[in-house]
């Protein structure tokens, strides 16, 4: 597995018509900065399509349905699982998250650069269902920095934070399962490297 800490700027051009793209999956422990990296990447390169996950979690302040997540209840999520409409799904911190299958398959078939931001359980499922996908692990500069980011959010009670820290220990131990690792020293650096990887198709 390659570990990359520096990055070179690159574009992620569309694949020629009729040629499917390889799916890129970004994963890593909670608090490592996945959402921040993806937001920066989408601002500068809107041609990269980010799958919007379905979740049973309640919206956080400022989140909108269909933008950050598709919000649903447990019964709605059960229906999606039963009908095979999710590419992957996982439970985390008492809530469930899943990736709608059809939009991903349609974008890949059309040659659109496609990115998933999902957790370890979901990444493992994608590895099984789409083995040609590129799995990228986003790692923190250090464990202490990850703890600082998780405890500094101020949006969750202590018991949820402790569950996230326990999950983070498990997720960090799974780094070797991924194709390569990017260390989040710099949000822009990680964005540049991700774009380079998506362009190298």
From TrEMBL:
SUPFAM superfamilies with a match to the protein in the record: P-loop containing nucleoside triphosphate hydrolases
Location in or out of the cell: Cytoplasm
NCBIfam families in UniProt: guanyl_kin (TIGR03263)
InterPro entries registered for this protein in UniProt: GK/Ca_channel_bsu, Guanylate_kin-like_dom, Guanylate_kinase, Guanylate_kinase_CS, P-loop_NTPase
Naturally occurring in which organism (per UniProt): Actinocorallia libanotica
Biological function: Essential for recycling GMP and indirectly, cGMP.
Pfam families: Guanylate_kin (PF00625)
Reactions that this protein is recorded to catalyse: GMP + ATP = GDP + ADP
Protein family membership: Belongs to the guanylate kinase family.
Limits of the Guanylate kinase-like domain: 21-199
Protein name per the record: Guanylate kinase
Gene: gmk
Chain sites annotated for binding ATP: 28-35
GO MF term set: kinase activity
């Amino acid at each position: 597995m390659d570990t990359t800490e520096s990055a070179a700027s690159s574009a992620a051009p569309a694949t020629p018509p009729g040629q499917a793209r390889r799916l890129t999956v970004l994963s890593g422990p909670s608090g490592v900065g996945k959402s921040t990296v993806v937001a920066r990447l989408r601002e500068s390169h809107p041609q990269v399509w980010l799958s919007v996950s379905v979740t049973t979690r309640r919206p956080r302040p400022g989140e909108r349905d269909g933008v950050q997540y598709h919000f649903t209840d447990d019964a709605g999520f059960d229906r999606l699982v039963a009908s095979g409409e999710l590419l992957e799904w996982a439970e985390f911190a008492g809530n469930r998250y899943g990736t709608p299958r059809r939009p991903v398959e349609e974008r890949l078939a059309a040659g659109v650069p496609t990115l998933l931001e999902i957790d370890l359980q979901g990444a493992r499922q994608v590895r099984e269902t789409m083995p040609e996908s590129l799995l990228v692990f986003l790692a923190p500069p250090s464990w202490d920095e990850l703890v600082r980011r998780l405890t500094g959010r101020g949006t969750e009670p202590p018991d949820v934070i402790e569950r996230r820290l326990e999950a983070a220990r498990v997720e960090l131990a799974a780094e070797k399962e991924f194709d390569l690792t990017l260390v989040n020293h710099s949000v822009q650096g990680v964005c540049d490297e991700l774009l380079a990887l998506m362009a190298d198709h």
